[in-house]
Write a structure and sequence with these properties.
8% strand; Rossmann fold; 6 strands; 4-stranded parallel sheet; two-stranded antiparallel ribbon; 3 domains; 14 helices; alpha/beta; single chain
């Protein structure tokens, strides 16, 4: 895709391996391309308050990758040009477009741009305008130097930025990123891929596990969701193997060990589960749909025109199975069910307490 000069977005749920994928791709590409890998993570809203501020922020991020040696094969002329550009009091998007073209012209290799955590910026109009700038430069790249490829990574699909843009700016939403191609590559693990990782582990630790049996069991719980696969393995390796009295190294990698790791996973607080709870609060329609599926046994047909179905699939909470919506994996199913049961019980307790007080 990069060799073909395509622009695309990697949109997957939280903790799905997007940043890891970009990091590995960067190493793969560096022999042929100059790769700028920047991230919007941790930037405050003030960086996106206007196109002037976003332009300066973007250039600062590019310069930092050069200054810290993260972007390779950048000559002193480019570095000095970036420094001089940052010294300007104001940089508008017209200036930024010309600066990008000059950087790409001065480099000895074609340039590729990665932007991670674009969700941090996607509720700002300035970011939509920035996508428009990239689109304009893309359309003119036969005559004006431009990035060979641009890759955006985040949870929200670019076509769904309207979910995050304020209502009064909704008219800004549409197609500044319609130059992009679909990214349909699998990022989850299948049973054989899990088995491959466990085989490497087994060669080093000699636990005596049945690699295929354990791989199949982990997959059955996770459906290959990368964070969940990794977390179960980490819990077995760290917590369960450390319990010498009950398991130890020889028995931890067993069916019982996997079940115990799943129990530990379901009871812990982590970034994935915390974000899931936040999404349920942010999107009441999503909560209602998942509640009805798990608590009331209601079935939903798969249609991307349904708002709840669309965002549930985008966040990675559901999958399409024979044109019906199913919870993406058993871990999510159990975690969500436990959450709804707790909330139901808590609400009942509050109601009962209120009745007694009255």
């Amino acid at each position: 895709m990069v060799d073909r000069g395509e622009y695309f977005a990697i949109n997957r749920g939280r903790q799905y391996g997007k940043t890891t994928t970009l990091s590995l791709l960067k190493k793969k590409l560096e022999s042929e391309y100059t790769v700028f890998f920047i991230s919007f993570e941790g930037l405050g809203d003030e960086c996106f308050e206007s196109t002037l501020k976003l332009a300066k922020t973007f250039l600062r991020l590019l310069y930092d990758t050069v200054d810290y040696g993260e972007t390779l094969d950048v000559n002193n002329e480019v570095k000095l040009f970036l420094e001089n550009s940052l010294d300007k009091e104001e940089i508008d998007f017209l200036d930024l477009g010309n600066i990008i073209s000059k950087i790409c012209r001065l480099l000895s290799k074609p340039a590729v741009l990665f932007i991670d955590e674009v969700d941090q910026a996607s509720n700002h109009k300035s970011f939509i305008d920035f996508l428009g700038l990239l689109r304009d430069k893309y359309l003119k790249r036969d005559t004006r130097p431009m990035f060979q490829s641009v890759i955006l990574a985040g949870v929200y699909d670019i076509k769904n930025l309207k979910l995050k843009i304020r209502k009064e700016e909704a008219h800004q939403y549409n197609s500044p990123w319609n130059i992009a191609v679909e990214f349909n590559l699998r990022m989850d693990f299948n049973v054989d891929e899990i088995a491959g990782m466990l085989s490497e582990y087994e060669c080093e630790h000699q636990t005596g596990m049945n690699v295929f049996e354990i791989s199949r069991m982990i997959y059955d719980y996770t459906s290959g969701y990368p964070f969940l696969v990794s977390r179960i393995c980490m819990l077995i390796d760290g917590r369960i193997m450390g319990d010498e009295a009950e398991y130890g190294i020889k028995n931890a990698w067993s069916k019982e060990g996997v079940v115990e790791a799943v129990k530990l996973l379901l009871s812990e607080s982590n970034t994935l589960f915390d974000d899931m709870k936040k999404k349920l609060d942010d999107f009441p329609e999503l909560r209602t749909m998942l509640y009805n599926m798990l608590y009331n046994g209601k079935s939903y047909s798969y249609t991307v025109d349904d708002f709840s179905v669309d965002i549930a699939k985008m966040f990675g909470y559901v999958r399409n199975e024979n044109n019906l919506i199913k919870i993406a994996n058993r871990i999510f199913e159990m975690r969500l069910y436990n959450l709804f049961v707790f909330e139901e019980g808590n609400n009942s307790a509050i109601y009962s307490a209120g009745s007694v007080c009255c």
